[in-house]
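Could someone model NAP with this protein?
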Amino acid sequence: MHELERGAEVPDALGPYLAVDRSRPRHECWVTGHMVAGLDGTAAVAGRVGSLSTTPDQALFRRMRQIADIVLVGAETVRREGYGCVRLDEKARSQRRAQGRSATPPLAVVSRSLAFDWTANVFATAPADAPTHVITCAAADPERRARAAEVAEVVVAGDERVEPVVALRALADLGHRVVLCEGGPSWLGELVAADRLDELCLSISPMMGGDPLPVSVTPPGAGLAQFALEGAMLEDDTIFLRYERSHDDR
Ligand SMILES: NC(=O)c1ccc[n+]([C@@H]2O[C@H](COP(=O)([O-])OP(=O)(O)OC[C@H]3O[C@@H](n4cnc5c(N)ncnc54)[C@H](OP(=O)(O)O)[C@@H]3O)[C@@H](O)[C@H]2O)c1
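Reply:
Sure, complex below.
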């Protein structure tokens, strides 16, 4: 047991996340989850994440997308949060360009129902070099699939449902080697159950009493996945934890 002490000031909150070497993933791509939880583990308040996220967490959330080749998210989060496309500031964009990456990572939405407003900004205002991707399964409604293809890149990854392993392989084949998953809990739980979560960046917000929804909802029967703490920072009363998948249980 060790006491945590306040260490040196971190000049740039994103710095420790940018410094992580994600170039040698266990599988075809590296998957980072980025979530915020209350002290009681809640992942939402009245169906939205907004009031759970403190000012330093919101700032990090926006900037964290700089690490990603693609930002992956479950459909319910897109619907509830009114998700838009990824926007990075000019400094982040030029840093990415200098690394030979697209200026902005595209967003990829996982859905079987394809129940979306296809005129929404998340599809309509995506940059030409970072179109929104829709990851679905063969059993999805063909008319909705055709509509999706008019405004997004459609990836079919599974028959009756999107298979996480198939989806990630497809993203890797498209050149996306660092995948940032922003939830929601159901989709993140599927990645955990498939043992495809390599890193979890978890902000602990100093509040309790939200929805009975944990940050990850694993399907029944999924085993435990072990993680190792690789970093901890704090600003005001928010704690920022960074875990990587531990190899101990394999
Ligand atoms: N605390 C945080 O950091 C955080 C982050 C994100 C979201 N949230 C909160 O989490 C809540 C939403 O999360 P959620 O767990 O309900 O939903 P979610 O994971 O965002 O999305 C679930 C949806 O994704 C699609 N999906 C998931 N797995 C699939 C599979 N294997 N095959 C095909 N489609 C699949 C389905 O979409 P279709 O229904 O379209 O088929 C499913 O209904 C919101 O309240 C949001 O505010 C919190």
